[in-house]
Amino acid sequence: MSLEFLAPDAAVADDRHTPIARTSMERAARSAGARFEVRDGWNVAVAYGSPERERTAVRETAGWADVSHLGKLELHVSNADDLAAIVAQAADGATLELGSATRAADAWWLPLTADRAIVVTDAAALPGLRDRLQEAAANASATVSVIDATCKYAALTLVGPLAREVFARFSAVDLRPRSLPVQGFRPGSVARTPGMVVREGDDRFLLLFGWAVGAYVWETVSDAGAHLGGSPVGLDALDEVAIGIAPVREEASRA
Amino acid sequence: MTRLPQQPGERLTRSRTVAFTFDGKRVEGYEGDTIASAMFAAGRRTFSRSFKYHRPRGEMCACGQCSNSMVAVDGRPGVRACGEPARDGMVVTHQNAWPSLGFDVMRATDYSGPLTPPGFYYKTFIRPRKLWPVYEKVLRHAAGLGVLRKKQEDREWRTEYRRRHCDVLVIGGGIAGLAAATRAAELGADVVLCDEDIEPGGALLHEGHHERARALVEQARVAGVEILTRAPALGFFDGLVPVWQGDTLHQVRAARTVVATGVIEQPLVFPDNDLPGVMLAGGAQRLAALYGVRPGSAAVVATTGDRGLAAALALREAGVEIRAVADLRTGGPAADAARLQELGVELHQGATVVRATGGKALTGAVIAEVDASGLARPGTERELDCDLLCVSGGTVPATSLLLQGGAKARYDETTARFMAGALPAGVFAAGAVVGHEDADAAELSGAIAGAEAAQALARSSNGARTPNLDDERERLGALPAPSAVAAPPAYARDAKKGGKAFVDLDEDVTVKDIKLSIAEGYDSIELSKRYTTVTMGPSQGRFSQLPSIRVMAQETGMSMGEVGITTARPPWTPVPLGALAGRPIEPAKRSAIHGRHRELGAQVKWAGDWRRAYDYGDPQGEAVAVQKAAGLIDVSTLGKMLVRGPEAGAFLDRLYPNRFSNLKPGRIRYGVISSDAGRIVDDGTICRVDEDTFYVTTTSSGAAAMEEWFGWWLADWKMDVHLTDVTQAISAINLAGPKAREIMATVTDLDCSNDAFGYMDGKRALIAGVPCLILRIGFVGEVGYEIHYPAAHGEHLWDALLDAGKPHGLRPFGLEPQRLLRLQKMHILVGQDTDSESTPFAAAMPWIVKLDKEGDFIGKWALKHYAEIEPETALVGFTMANGHVPTEGAVVVRSGVAAGQVTSSRYSPQLDQVIGLAWVPKDLAADDAAITISDEGVTYDATVRTKPFYDPEGEVLRS
Q1: What is the rounded CA–CA span in Å between residue A113 and residue B715?
Q2: pLDDT per residue over B812-847, tens digit each?
Q3: Cα–Cα nearest to A198, from A152, A240, A153, A232
Q4: Residue B119's pLDDT is what?
Q5: Count of H helices and E strands in chain B?
Q6: Can you give the pLDDT at residue A248?
Q7: CB under 8 Å to B457, separation ≥6 — which residues?
Q8: CB–CB of A228/A146 below 8 Å?
Q9: A76 bridge partner residues
């Protein structure tokens, strides 16, 4: 692959160097008291010292977690039909619908336009997904680009009953359930920068925004969230708030 | 004794006291009191001094609408005491009076008459001109209300925005608003209601119907309405209504809006109508009903409608002796008037107040019958002792928000006031603001408006059918019309001279001032407003707009409709700038290596929307290190795009004046983007990664614009090309210097010899275990490797290179030394060394324009033209004869006339001379030509250089 210089997971350890991938929010999380572990090649914040406080945040107020380590791919196909076919092949028959996120093959499939989508998955699952997409792309008649966008977008998961109130302090995207139901997907301004929001569950939102503004967005979210009684949470605490799953939309007929 | 026994609908919790200080003296009140009601109960009658004349002012509206009771609370100026709940420990102080509220030396301005007419600052205090700064200081010191704390940290307070989307926003929490909100919510809409008062309920609360009001509020809450109190709507901005609530600015975006903002009771205009003790009838009623305060002992009531009569009855009930009631209407007493007469109250029909008497406070009032101009008919005057004068000059619908939203104002002759009509789509109005002042009519109209708003959204609850509103509309139409209101005269007065008749209490604008403005030619309401400042004070014309229009109509002979009203503008209520500012967190882009720069002591500054390291404490030493050993700079801010597809090369050929389709994979070419007009817009390098993939870099500040430019043209040309912005995804660092190759060899297996990896080659390799795209380019003029890699490994690779380079003398260097180094090579900075008129030909880059390309490209037509003509100016280098470093922007002069400008200049320690770039007349663009630079009035000699100051043939770069 000629574009491996985009892929953080293409780094290899040698006898002198062990590259560990780090997010743009790592320093801010460290200042907030995060404890880190290396998982799947990434230095990730797993906890913030008080499991009780984190539990309160996700259950009663609001918590935010840096999930920038999630693998992301940008899929660009010159033909909408080919995009649909590639997605169906790589994602167990899933179909995409503008305005909605599709949960399939342990990934979020986010259609930006009829011929462009972002896929978000666990860091460990990224290489396999990339391979499946490239395999599916080989069958397409149109030009296909599968670009590693892991470091293009930083990501934050915002959870808790006050998650929407916290979000309202820095973004005008309408997160009311009637406007953004579970699995809804909205590009829009997040803290005055271009971003995207996925409603992963009733009180769980995935925010995507530019990697370079990670520290700024963390500061903004922390400022808003702390004022409402929330706190940062580690990856382990996120398990308390499930990702809402809807059935994969099957194609009407499969080839 | 000013406190009344417990009132049925009062807001007080008498079992809990609160204590605060006013001007250092302790004041006690009850929980639920406002600052003003507590102070009033304690005996205070003067609350402030007026803006210009420093006249004593007392409570007028008792609801936070006027500016008579403005005080400073805990250091925050401009707080309306009659709308601010009292809290334990508050420190309240007066404003705009010195040395004390009781004795204010600036009251002298009240007697300054001819020296301070409207616009006096345009007529007096302007000569001699050189003294104006002194006058300005004195006037500025005398003007203004309140004082801010000196230290910034003492003035800071936390404010934030809250974005709220909803189906229906109801503005106004009176009976109509509550009914609208409840109805819409019951029909399934998501409803927000905002009200500026301490609690919703509106006039019902102090007019004896508090139980009905509070029941409606509970109904609204049960229906799921979000109710915001002490939350005035500030304006109407195309579907966005900002609502200010304390330290939160709610930005409400509603699909539909119901405006139920009610009416504003109007004062009357007569001599000395500003004396403490003159109150709005409704204000006096509020004090009594909501705060259990007797507003006076003996009152005179002057009214033009039933409101004043109802207030008189209520005040009598509260133990106030009503000496007389003057009802301007004729034609038989209304029901309340008859009741007053039964109670032995003097009733004077066809009469109004023509003067208030008293010194520091009201001691009496004169009522009389008046002619059409408002002059008292001789022999009808009746002078009465009183300490309370309740005035009710009719009402004005609070239409400002409707008008801001696009409704049209029209003068209604029947009710003698301006109404709003022709509401824009999505906006509904209900209640008193559209003429339904009776409680039943207001409630019904509110319910209808709420249903209409919800219906428009096709919402229904649990499948219930949306109601048929025809019956309700019919019922509303059948309700009795409101009782008549007499139009008061523009200003009433008796035959005596003296006394100021105020049209605008906020700005101390009198009837005489309006007349003067008309006489001076400001004879439209818009001009008179600007000249006299009428309606421009804190109450934003609530009590002064209609009276000022009446005066203008009377004086000019125009009808009220012809005079018209001034344009409604936000904010409807004065709001602190801090509430509008929101959180002071600036969006900032930071490279993945930013933390390291800070740790290394970098001086960080803004460069566009990025935070960048300008230097590490020694910019000249850093520049020398690059040339003697090696330097490392973070260039992650560069714009970066992947251009992929079978037509990618052709696409770039059409965008750029030079060719890229013939670029071999693994090679790099410099490119300049030109506009349609052939002017330089941006520049950067393009590396062909593989047959179908180009990696394009742009300037940092041009990244977003270039992505847009590329995308726009791609959409137009519909070529088979994929564009992906990866600016933030990639960290980029430039390792440059004579030792750069040696350092590289320690961190990568890639053969970096010049034969294997030549100048303008691009290669992919692992460096310190990280996958990289390495561009052998040389912006700073040395052997250099610009390394692009995933941002997640930003610090890792930076650290690895710094470690590897330490033994070789490698130093980090910042933007400032980079600027010097590139200047030595005469490498331009687009936007600094070029402007919107610069062409590649004039900028000494004719080689970049490939007019022999097949096919069209952007700017071709213009560039063909420029290729055939001599540019008037050219970009050249220069050295200074002395050691002066000219300011960037200094002028190149010829025979004393401007002929060009300096764009970049620095002292080079390596070359030990001052160098720069400048635009000069074309005939001077030759080596050794002499030019003159004028810098801040002093001229300097300089010599032109057309080749780079350092390594002119590029041998070092290519070594």
Answers
A1: 13
A2: 999 999 999 999 999 999 999 999 999 999 998 999
A3: A153
A4: 81
A5: 25, 47
A6: 41
A7: B167, B168, B189, B255, B256
A8: no
A9: A116, A145
pLDDT, tens digit, for every residue of B882-916? 899 999 999 999 998 999 999 999 999 989 999 99
Cβ–Cβ gap A151/B791 under 8 Å: yes
Check pLDDT > 60 for residue B462. no
Cross-chain Cβ contact A215/B610 below 8 Å: no
Judging by DSSP bridges, how do beta strands B321-327 and A35-39 pair with one another? unpaired
Closest by Cα among B235, B257, B261, B238 to B184 = B257
For residue B213, what pLDDT band results from cuts at 50, 70 and 90? very high
- Would the pTM count as exceeding 0.90? yes
Query: Is there a contact between B162 and A213 if contact means CB atoms under 8 Å apart?
Result: no
Q: Which residues contact B337 (CB under 8 A, 6 or more apart)?
A: B309, B325, B327, B347, B349
Task: Tell me if residue B708 falls in helix, strand or coil.
Answer: helix
Using a CB-CB distance cutoff of 8 angstroms, which residues of chain A are in contact with residue B253? Answer: 172, 174
Q: Which of residues 76-95 of A touch B (CB under 8 A)?
A: 76, 78
Q: How far is CA A24 from CA A69, B579, B604, B638, B714, in A?
A: 10, 31, 17, 17, 32
The helix/strand/coil state of A205 is: strand
Per residue in A109-118, pLDDT tens? 999 999 999 9
Helix axes B545-556, B525-532, angle to 10 degrees: 120
The candidate with the shortest Cα–Cα distance to B397, out of B375, B378, B421, is B421
Alpha helices in A148-238 (DSSP H): 163-168, 214-227, 235-238
B33-37, B281-285, B454-458: range with lowest mean pLDDT = B454-458
Prediction ipTM score:
0.95
Question: Are B352 and B302 a contacting pair, CB within 8 Å?
Answer: yes
Using DSSP's 3-state secondary structure scheme, residue B382 falls into strand
Probe site for chain A from B161, B192, B460, B589 (most A CB atoms < 10 A): B589
Q: How far is CA B916 from CA B66, B822, B926, B942, in A?
A: 63, 11, 15, 10
Please answer yes or no on whether A2 and B728 come within 8 Å at the CB atom. no
Contact of A191 with chain B, judged by CB distance below 8 Å, is answered with yes
Q: How much is the pLDDT for A247?
A: 40
- Determine if the peptide bond prior to A187 is cis (ω within 30°): no
Query: Which is it for the CA torsion B359, B365, B371, B377, positive or negative?
Result: negative
Q: Using the 8-state DSSP alphabet, how is residue B424 labeled?
A: P
Contact B55, B32 (CB under 8 A): no
Cβ A169–B162 below 8 Å, yes or no? yes
Q: List the B730-736 sheet strands across, edge first.
A: B762-767, B770-775, B784-790, B730-736, B630-634, B810-812
Question: In Å, how far are B16, B22, B32, B202 from B37, measured between CA atoms?
Answer: 15, 13, 9, 18
> Are B646 and A12 in contact (CB < 8 Å)?
no
Q: β-strands A63-66, A153-159: how paired?
A: antiparallel
DSSP code, position B110: G
Q: What is the pLDDT of residues A27-58, one digit of tens each?
A: 999 999 999 999 999 999 999 988 888 998 99
In sign, the C-alpha dihedral spanning B328, B334, B340, B344 is: positive
Q: Where are the alpha helices (DSSP H) in B636-766?
A: 648-655, 703-717, 740-747
Q: Which of B187-191, B740-744, B954-958 has the lowest mean pLDDT?
A: B954-958
Which helix (H) or strand (E) segment is B785 a member of?
strand B784-790
How many CA atoms does the CB half-sphere of B955 hold within 13 Å? 5
The confidence score (pLDDT) of residue B465 equals: 54
- % residues pLDDT > 70 (chain B): 99
Q: How confident is the model over A72-83, as a mean pLDDT?
A: 94
Q: Is the pLDDT confidence value at A254 over 60?
A: no
Pair type for strands A116-121 and A107-113: antiparallel
